């Protein structure tokens, strides 16, 4: 079997609101590039990639000479063809490779008539648990949907729990000053005393503010304290002072960083992202290292539609050491581009697809609809806030949003 072509289509799919984070916002929609890899046997594989609110179509088109004529079964050769660590110094292709790997695994599964998890060692669970993944949000044009106050945060978490069954709640913070977000997080803990919690200010705090905050939540049912400050050395200092496991999806995203963390621990839980690590298979390799050295693992979300969600589900299905609920932005979406619409949560979990390959198909009408919407609206800068013109954060940040905005 040989690859004959690659097509990339950029879509933008509406969210339930403008969701805020420490470096800016998702401006009421996700921008994703959908990849289709075609073969000479008529089998097409699907991939997906984000990009901070921008299209990656041109980058994928540039990979066509690397792909045409390649056997999609030869995944290790493909990795070095696309992202040889020396050759790709000037154009790091790790995330592009991830989308191509998704598509090749999809092709292999379809060719063999088996789901991707069978190619990865077989599943150890039939469904993957997810956290609620709470964001502060701006109000919609009709005034609905705002999440700014502790009361609004608790009400939103309660609605998600009732709808989807979440029993783990993650707050994406770093938007407001630490003192205010502590009030919000404690209100969340009080409202759901039986549920598990995690807090992620996205690397916005100084080491000292991270320690101050962490000590004040030590008594809660915390899964972990995610990226309170930036960098391995900063996280190491926090870990020495705060009795909560630390976690990251930002500063351990490759094997050299993982090795550094094993040699001199700063992070207890590694959040594996199928895009950031370059595919599902590198995540499984990393999970094996974590299992050996007794580091925790979870599955990170980078703003997925249904194709990438499928990769997260197949990953979560095969990891015996997945001890934490996965992250997902998925419930913030209004729609999806896969046949059948959005996948459904059951008791806070999503079932792993059982059809051959990734187990999802493109809804061509939805793909066309949201590609046209992208053509009309264009991209947006993920690292900017539409309600705060000219603003950008420092690291550590002291330019927090006012509590009234």
TrEMBL record:
<dbReference type="GO" id="GO:0008872">
    <property type="term" value="F:glucarate dehydratase activity"/>
</dbReference>
<dbReference type="InterPro" id="IPR029017">
    <property type="entry name" value="Enolase-like_N"/>
</dbReference>
<dbReference type="Pfam" id="PF02746">
    <property type="entry name" value="MR_MLE_N"/>
</dbReference>
<dbReference type="InterPro" id="IPR034593">
    <property type="entry name" value="DgoD-like"/>
</dbReference>
<dbReference type="InterPro" id="IPR013342">
    <property type="entry name" value="Mandelate_racemase_C"/>
</dbReference>
<dbReference type="GO" id="GO:0046872">
    <property type="term" value="F:metal ion binding"/>
</dbReference>
<dbReference type="InterPro" id="IPR036849">
    <property type="entry name" value="Enolase-like_C_sf"/>
</dbReference>
<dbReference type="InterPro" id="IPR029065">
    <property type="entry name" value="Enolase_C-like"/>
</dbReference>
<keyword id="KW-0479">Metal-binding</keyword>
<protein>
    <recommendedName>
        <fullName>glucarate dehydratase</fullName>
        <ecNumber>4.2.1.40</ecNumber>
    </recommendedName>
</protein>
<feature type="domain" description="Mandelate racemase/muconate lactonizing enzyme C-terminal">
    <location>
        <begin position="150"/>
        <end position="245"/>
    </location>
</feature>
<dbReference type="Pfam" id="PF13378">
    <property type="entry name" value="MR_MLE_C"/>
</dbReference>
<dbReference type="InterPro" id="IPR013341">
    <property type="entry name" value="Mandelate_racemase_N_dom"/>
</dbReference>
<comment type="pathway">
    <text>Carbohydrate acid metabolism; D-glucarate degradation; 2,5-dioxopentanoate from D-glucarate: step 1/2.</text>
</comment>
